[in-house]
User: Fold these one by one.
Assistant:
Number 1:
Amino acid sequence: MITGSRMLRKIGVIGGGRMGETLAHLNGLVGLETVVKVKSDAEHLARAESAIVASHKREVRRGRQTEAEAEAALARVRVTGDYVDLADCDVVIEAIQEDPAAKR
């Protein structure tokens, strides 16, 4: 993916809900390394990772992608609880709940 004259290689997504899961799924599928930042507790980390895996499994079951494509896409996605992991992303997309206090 090209923006101006610079190639995007790494995308950050803040939020592991439905929108964050979809962004991670699609970015990984098109070949972009993707870091998904969620709340740092074990429950949020596990839930986000599980949702992304389930999303790819669903697409494989429906015949929309192969098992190899799903595995390759998942290898490009990392879920984290630490903002520091977003530091080297080319772009970061905010995809958290629609709550002004949370967005601040």
Number 2:
Amino acid sequence: MISLSVTGLTKKYNRKIVLNDVQFGHHSGILGISGANGSGKSTLMKCLAGLLRPNSGSIDWKLNGNLLSPTELKNHIGYAAPYISLYEEFTVLENLEFLSEVSQQHLNETDIQQLLDKTETDSLKDKLYKSLSTGQQQRVKLASSLIRDPDVLFWDEPGSNLDSDGHQLVSRILSEQKEKGCLIFLASNDPDEIALCDDVLALSH
């Protein structure tokens, strides 16, 4: 079981303080990170996932009580966000196959088919990523975040550019991942998405 403890987390860009003395813990279910645009939701997610280094404070990840190093943590994480893009010149299938190899998951055809089915992207698998609509691209991003079968899932604005079917898809996958014991972080300013969360950390400017 993975758990997180954050103490005194502060992040500045030049002199602008984006996060100031944030502290919380998370050890099961879905934690919503809410707040207006510019409140630091994405910055916090990046800090938690080890993509950004905070100016001060501690972020302690533990697996069964043992501290995880940032390198070890990477093997447990899935991440989807508007600012993380996939390879435009690859088809959907090629993207998933490539990411599977890079993350050393070496998924077989059946595993990848399950990801396509889960995110309802099977009909898109032979299309170039750059030819897809933004909503279709978002579904593929969600699929890519599940390649590792992660213990920790970071979804930043998962419903962006999705239609009502897409929002139901987000809700269903979150429910499935939670059921499996996945620790989930969901950054959003969409009240419907925040309503899916077990706890909410509200950031203010």
Number 3:
Amino acid sequence: MPLEQTELLKKFAELVVEKNKIHNLTSAKTPEEFYKKHIKDCLASYVTIEKRLQKQIVDCGSGAGLPSIVWSIINPQLKIFSVDSNQKKIAFQKHIKRTFGLKNLHPVAARIQDFCPEETSSAIFKAFSSVKKGAQSLNRDAQFRNLFFLKKDDEKTQEEITDAGSLLYDYKRHKYISNKEKMLVVELYDSKNSNN
């Protein structure tokens, strides 16, 4: 990764922790902890599914901007809509967009149910309640090629996959390691748009 991107990611970690004193953005207490726990996970998950992503991405319930801000820094070719209903979190993301000059990042204050991208997209869920609720939350008119859930590779996630069984047209499990922890990207296909 180019040094410039690494510096931006470190600066992002600093700004999140600084703003966290005012807004509830993270449980991390230091920029180092935020970088290690969250940014490294976003980087590892991106490498795992990079070739499966559409050119347009919708980060659902993006919070502090994970993974949307991290991914927009490391791949300026992606067009990323970062959607969250919390106005303060979106205001923070807009501040990051201006500060870093991230032209490919589009923070949107909206409920994910109400957001409908014009182009075929990939939907990303990180720290979202469950696979089933995530899949059910999307606007039914939206053209999502695939849905990605960034999760721990554990029993709870397996239970979520089982619970979402009736919604799963097809899915794949993409395993990776982050901070010595087994992680998983669960990829679902929208039955309307799937050729898999």
